[in-house]
Each structure stands twice: as structure tokens, then as C-alpha cells.
Design goal:
69 residues, mainly alpha, 2 strands, 6% strand, membrane, transmembrane helix, PspC, transmembrane
């Protein structure tokens, strides 16, 4: 678990396919990364793709990378 002062933190995962954003979200929510990726792809497809891509890029910039311990 990613903790800082005992609190759970959202970080990009080292178990990544592209930038680790969705795997990081899966780790934060204690879910399987494959399920989060499938949900994201379905949402992106049904929203014409562009908003999902834009959201992914914003999250890539905003969510810090997980430190290598």
C-alpha cells in the first residue's frame, strides 16, 4: 500500500501498460488492474474516445509516480 504518514496515496503504478495510471487507480481501489482498464476503455468508447484520452493524459500529468523502494 502506498502510504505517507499512514494515509493511502494515489500514485502511478510500476505495473504499467502505458503510464501506470489505471494500474495505480486499481491499486488504490484494491481492484484487479485488468478490470479498471476494461472499464476505462468501455467508458472511452461510449464517450467518443476523446474525453477519455484527454482524462488519461491529465491523470498521467497529475498523479505522481510511485517511488521505487
Amino acid at each position: 500500500m502506498n502510504t505517507f504518514d499512514g494515509k493511502k496515496r494515489l500514485t502511478r503504478s510500476n505495473d504499467r501498460m502505458l503510464a501506470g495510471v489505471l494500474a495505480g487507480i486499481a491499486e488504490y481501489l484494491d481492484m484487479d488492474p485488468t478490470i479498471v482498464r476494461i472499464i476505462f476503455v468501455l467508458l472511452a468508447v461510449f464517450s467518443a474516445g476523446f474525453p477519455g484520452l484527454l482524462l488519461y493524459i491529465i491523470l498521467w500529468i497529475v498523479i505522481p509516480e510511485k517511488p521505487l523502494n
